[in-house]
User: Fold these one by one.
Assistant:
Number 1:
Amino acid sequence: MNEKAQFHIDTLAVRAGQERSQFGEHAEALYLTSSFVFDNAAQAAARFSGAEEGNVYSRFTNPTVTMFQERLAALEGADACLATASGMAAILSTVMALLKSGDHIVAARGIFGASQQLFGTIMPRFGVDTSFIPGSTPAAFKVALKPNTKLVFIETPSNPLTEVFDITALAELAHAAGALLVVDNCFCSPALQRPLDFGADLVIHSATKYLDGQGRVLGGAVCGGKGLIEEVFKFLRTAGPTLSAFNAWVILKGLETLKIRMLAQSASALDLARRLEAHPAVARVFYPGLPSHPQYALAMRQQATGGGIVAFEVKGGREEAWRVIDACKLLSITANLGDVKTTLTHPASTTHGRISPEARAESGITEGLLRIAVGLEAVDDIEADLLHGLAGC
Ligand SMILES: *Cc1c(COP(=O)(O)O)cnc(C)c1O
């Protein structure tokens, strides 16, 4: 079943991309094999040259990985998808495949910490510089575009402050300057937002997060047009940050429950965000599904819901924020997100601890900020756990 357009996303999530073997298995098969055999020498030569389609070696392609790629492409409404070993491998492969020395990136300042490190400290060694733009105003992106800008890179909503970016406006700006718009869709996933529908050229995923959804494996993907994905594939098959068949199988099955998980997690996140907003020890709540969010209208245009991530600032600083974390008995103190178990993190000292204090201040990540990735527990239990520490603030 590979027809993408004719079925609803719910149907595609459980059916798209499946290829049955000669055994007629009902569930998708896991092909744990590093290489594939050929009928004869001529077929081996034809597979290697590309004259005949088919699997050769699992660094290039693997049937389980292909099923995952087809299914995610169907969900994102993309022509093609390429799986990678992690979300960072997807971002690295994209920039290594599409950029060269002398090229320039315009990226939002508030992107994932490792993405900032990659663009800010590693890529310059290869002659690729990045301008980081604070905030989400399209005009600020426009003035940063240069003749050699090849990529505009955003996350929407951003991590951890849930800033929302206008995908359509930024795609228009990027295209007018001859650049591509790349959107990290980790926080929403295609269950809630499809950036390609709004004009983005490529969508990046950390499949480690909501796509797996149960905190088991690392994975990543890049989705978009066939030509661009083919370029990224040329880099990946040679350089090797390929997704393992096992991880692909886990995430492929994760996609089947993605939408029902994300709708339930979003409903709980909205409920929790409202309760936090009313708490006297909370200075501010950042959640795109709250009317108090500065880009609420834009978020509701681009996203089906506000998503599962809520950030909030406790009154005070690091001491008060850490007190809330340390008083928790139920929530997991971990930097991961997108899990069915609610996770709680202090971005300033963990995920965003390695970026400079200036960059952190520019991104608005204060010492009192906490980020919750709401899971599937009862909201009353999540709230009660946070109240232990908030009561003492
Ligand atoms: C986690 C994350 C990444 C990196 O993904 P990995 O799978 O950990 O490599 C990229 N972007 C965002 C928004 C993330 O949350």
Note: The chain has two domains: 9-255, 258-390.
Number 2:
Amino acid sequence: MKDARKDTVLGHAGRSPRENHGIVNPPVYHCSTVLFPTLEDLEAGDQAPFDRINYGRIGTPTTLAFEQAIAELEGAYRAVNTGSGLNAIATALFAFTKTGDHVLITDSAYGPTRRFANDTLVPYGVEVEYFDPTIGAGITGLLKPNTSVVFLESPGSLTFEVQDVPAIAAAAKTVGATVMIDNTWATPLFFQPLQHGVDVSIHSATKYIVGHADAMLGVISCANEAQWLAVKKAATRTGTCAGPDDIYLGLRGLRTLAVRLKQHEASALALAEWLSKQPEVTRVLHPALPDCPGHELWKRDIGRSSGLFSIVMNAVPKPALSAMLNSLELFGMGYSWGGFESLILPARPAAVRTATRWTDPGTMLRLHAGLEDADDLIRDLDGAFARLRAAL
Ligand SMILES: *Cc1c(COP(=O)(O)O)cnc(C)c1O
């Protein structure tokens, strides 16, 4: 339907029952070898390798269905599916960098993004420089003629600074740099980076898109054909691909993304409000709260929020932190987020920053509000704070 809202697109993108016996969902293709009926067909496949299904690793109708749905949601030319979110980040960076290039990465980027840049791009002769996530148009002062990529993540991992995406993108264009963003937090539903000047939008689909903590998946959306081709070639050269059943879980997750996010959003806001009233909590880092850095930008460009945010407490000694966290009934402790379940994790941004300094001496916790009842989650946290107080 023309001009359909995103919730509607989620239900219909990437499937065509009429071409599939009337069956609502697309089939899952398990595939390595694709057979060619004639030598001529085989050779034609070599001429235009991305125009046809010719080998499992390059993509199947299952891959294409997922890519098509994501591209439609993000307003992209096309998307490229990868085996994980980190794989999507690495593939996108590989696609647009070569020896001698200069790459700018936000200081608030996901830790493994930094590790890939520092430990893989740098040894290949790429100059990697980090910048203050709140820099905005000031990025101009860091741009060089050989800046090939400006990499954003908004809100930032752990610390949730919201970036001035349009201003940074406009500045980056003056030197011809490709602007990328890790858009995992906002999902394709809450923020469309390509409509704000970004060239390449990256998702860890492992998080909200799959949404059930049961598959690893990544995806890269590209604004135009040349960018898509560059990313597709990089993905093909490095051999990234996801298993068909995991891609199907991503496609299935999309169907309920809007309703799940509504609940994640409401519960996270309820938790954030309750937490902000606890005497031990000094800051709540949630883009929808006025004291979060970049809150005005969040209001202007995003306006909705998902279930992930952080709090800072007065510095808590280790034994008291253990007492607080070790007996939670509903919150699990573990990496990742975006599933139906609530999570909590200590975080130490000071350890990874280089362009800016994280000087707050308090203890940071990152929380993910799952789909449990928010009052039950608050009761679980209430117990945790009681144990904390008893241990101090
Ligand atoms: C988890 C995460 C990734 C990596 O995704 P995987 O699918 O786990 O590889 C990338 N960016 C952000 C912001 C993440 O939280």
Note: The chain has a mean pLDDT of 96.
